[in-house]
Design a protein that fits this description.
With about 350 residues, the protein is mainly beta. Helices cover about 0% and strands about 50% of the residues. It contains one helix and 31 strands. The strands form eight sheets. An eight-stranded mixed sheet has the order 25-26-27-28-10-31-30-29. A five-stranded mixed sheet has the order 2-9-8-5-6, with no helix packed on it. Strands 11-12-13-14 form a four-stranded antiparallel sheet, with no helix packed on it.
């Protein structure tokens, strides 16, 4: 089994974004960049201090983080900001500086990044069973529902949602979508099947009993549709970046998101998702690894290397790993890929 450092490399693109923003030449004030680090860990304290290039008489300063007011200070007093937000990612800072008795203050901005201090565990897998998989299925989503597997596929003209017997491959029901759409991830919640499309900003809702299309909805954010899962209350969906969004299934509104990190770096192209036993499992596009993620923070806590499965299937380079489903009755995971000829039932261990 590879070590953490090597496994981390196959999940990452390592570009780190910049730190503090520079002030405009005409501004009197700015955040003191010498007092701010580019990256912090949750629980650390950031010193928020304002420079005063023209020695103006500062009346007060109001500080904000991610548009939430965190403190008001008299004069030019600095403040120590304890980073309590569990979510990883950028904290956007703002301060309104009131000076010289003016009613309107000057706004200044900066930011820093909250990163993970967790070293992911390397998990092993054991193959419990092997089952047939349709080699024409360009798998985008995979999920257990009522002891059967539900699968969604992609590609224009060949996208559908299907329920089948995983032991034999026998198809019980199938709903095709219009040829203009490239199907993506699925999940089943409240007896409804939700399906995303890739770049059409369109989703579909089916009745899980009749398989009739009940609603077509439009994404309320300008994002792509990739993977889906749920926690019995909310739907979680990826958009091809490091973000995983939380959706209200009743309104289909995207409420907020977490950023997926491994150490101090975001994991890009998070794809197929599965929530199981309180952890978020995520395929990463074109990688033979699955990240095990804390769904509250976005921190990667474990890595599973599935590159060994490639030797057991008839695949090309384009037939990437994509498809992870958890069976709560057997407490096992089912793993497959695009156009793979097999589905693997596996168990994880440290």
């Amino acid at each position: 089994m590879k070590n953490y450092n090597l496994l981390g490399i196959i999940l990452l693109s390592a570009a780190l974004m910049g730190g503090c923003e520079s002030k405009k030449p005409e501004d009197f004030f700015s955040f003191d960049a010498t007092k701010l680090k580019k990256q912090y860990l949750s629980g650390e304290t950031a010193n928020l201090s304002i420079t005063n290039s023209e020695n103006k008489a500062i009346d007060s300063i109001v500080y904000y983080s991610n548009d939430q007011k965190i403190a008001s200070k008299k004069g030019g007093e600095a403040m120590n900001f304890e980073i309590k937000s569990p979510k990883l990612g950028y904290q956007n800072l703002k301060a309104i500086v009131y000076y010289d008795g003016e009613t309107g203050g000057q706004e200044v901005f900066s930011k820093f990044e909250v990163i993970s201090n967790i070293k992911p565990k390397v998990l092993k897998y054991t193959i419990v069973n092997t089952y047939p998989h349709d080699t024409k299925a360009f798998t985008e989503g995979l999920e257990f529902y009522r002891d059967t597997l539900i699968e969604s596929t992609g590609q224009e003209g060949n996208s559908y949602v299907r329920k089948f017997d995983y032991k034999t491959g026998k198809v019980y029901k199938q709903a095709d979508i219009d040829a203009q759409y490239f199907g993506e991830g699925i999940t089943v919640i409240g007896n409804k099947i939700y399906q995303l499309t890739w770049r059409n900003k369109t989703g579909f809702i089916y009745n899980a009993d009749t398989w009739k299309l009940e609603k077509t909805f439009t994404f309320d954010k300008d994002v792509e549709g990739w993977g889906m899962t749920h926690d019995n209350k909310y739907i979680y969906q990826s958009d091809g970046t490091e973000k995983v969004w939380r959706m209200d299934p009743s309104s289909q509104k995207l409420l907020d998101f977490i950023n997926i990190y491994i150490g101090d770096t975001k994991i890009p192209q998070v794809n197929e998702l599965e929530l199981a036993e309180g952890k978020l499992y995520a395929n990463v596009w074109q990688k033979d690894a699955v990240a095990v993620i804390n769904p509250e923070t976005g921190a990667t806590e474990g890595i599973i290397d599935f590159s060994g499965l490639r030797a057991l299937v008839k695949v090309t380079k384009e037939d990437v790993l994509n498809g992870i489903a958890y069976n709560p009755k057997t407490k096992t995971f089912f793993i497959t890929g695009k156009n793979w000829d097999k589905i693997f039932e596996v168990k994880f261990s440290e």
